[in-house]
């Protein structure tokens, strides 16, 4: 029933290496202010945060902006992101992605980072320095409404920590009513 193609998550995967982060929604403000310990909002007003912040990470994310601010099913979502890598990232880097839908663990999977960065026209090795990215993805209508919590943690081949990014996505039923109504 849940057609949760990995390319829905691709933006997040990419974000691990590239300082972009796509798959997120503007949260209700009570939730938004409720950042968990070890998490820190990224400038730009999106609900995307860094996590495990007490651990040194190779990627610093300076900005994440989403347009529209509230991602909707059946619509395009554009993400602008700026970040910088403090070291090169070579082949063999990977990203562990966990997605919870409500209380259900929907995805718990490891992806090859260098295979994924091709989606934003980059290739490994990623050299250290600044990255500015813009990426548009279409969010399918078929994504079930509800609350999604995503964690993505990226590491180099030698298990150096690249980044931890988390986002909470809330898809409401509103857009569904538009489609069937
Ligand atoms: C998303 O953007 C693409 C490329 O511009 C366009 O072809 C597509 O119709 C857009 N989708 C929606 C739902 O607006």
Write up what this structure looks like.
By secondary structure, this protein is an alpha+beta fold. The protein has a single domain, classed as Ganglioside M2 Activator Protein, Chain: A (Distorted Sandwich), CATH 2.70.220. Helices cover 15% and strands 41% of the residues. The chain is built from four helices and nine strands, in the order H-H-E-E-E-E-E-E-H-E-E-E-H. It has a six-stranded antiparallel β-sheet. Strands 3-4-7 form a three-stranded antiparallel β-sheet, with helices on one face. Strand 8 and strand 9 form a beta hairpin. The longest helix has 13 residues. The N terminus is likely disordered. 2-acetamido-2-deoxy-beta-D-glucopyranose binds next to strand 4.
List the helices and strands and how they pair.
Elements: H1 6-18, H2 29-32, E1 40-41, E2 48-50, E3 59-67, E4 75-85, E5 94-101, E6 104-112, H3 113-116, E7 129-139, E8 146-155, E9 161-171, H4 174-180
Antiparallel strand pairs: 1-2, 2-9, 3-4, 4-7, 5-6, 5-8, 8-9
2-acetamido-2-deoxy-beta-D-glucopyranose is lined by residues 74-76, 138.
Helix coverage percent of residues?
10-25%
Q: Rg from C-alpha positions?
A: 15 Å
**Unreliable residue stretches:** 1-33
- How far the N terminus sits from the C terminus, by CA atoms, comes to 22 Å
Coarse shape: globular
* Structure summary, number of beta strands: 9
β-strand percent reads 35-45%
Sheet having the most strands: 6 strands, antiparallel
What name does CATH use for the topology? Ganglioside M2 Activator Protein, Chain: A
Strand neighbour order, sheet with most strands: 1-2-9-8-5-6
The number of helices is: 4
Going by helix content, strand content and strand pairing, the class is alpha+beta
Total domains = 1
CATH superfamily (homologous) name: Ganglioside GM2 activator
Protein name: Phosphatidylglycerol/phosphatidylinositol transfer protein
Signal peptide: 1-19
GO molecular function, one term: sterol binding
Domain MD-2-related lipid-recognition: 48-169
């Amino acid at each position: 029933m849940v057609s949760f193609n990995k390319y829905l998550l691709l933006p997040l995967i990419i974000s691990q290496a590239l300082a972009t982060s796509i798959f997120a929604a503007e949260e209700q403000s009570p939730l938004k202010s409720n950042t968990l310990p070890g998490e820190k909002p990224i400038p730009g007003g999106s609900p995307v945060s860094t996590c495990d912040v007490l651990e040194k990470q190779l990627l610093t994310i300076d900005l994440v902006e989403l347009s529209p601010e509230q991602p909707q099913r059946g619509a395009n979502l554009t993400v602008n992101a700026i970040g910088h890598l403090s070291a090169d990232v070579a082949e063999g880097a990977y990203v562990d992605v966990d997605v919870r839908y409500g209380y259900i663990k929907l995805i718990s999977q490891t992806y090859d980072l260098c295979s994924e960065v091709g989606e934003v026209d980059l290739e490994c090795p990623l050299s250290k320095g600044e990255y500015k990215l813009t990426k548009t993805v279409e969010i399918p209508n078929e994504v079930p409404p509800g609350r999604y919590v995503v964690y993505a943690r990226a590491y180099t081949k030698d298990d150096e920590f690249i980044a931890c990014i988390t986002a909470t996505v809330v898809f409401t039923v509103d857009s569904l009513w538009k489609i069937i109504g």
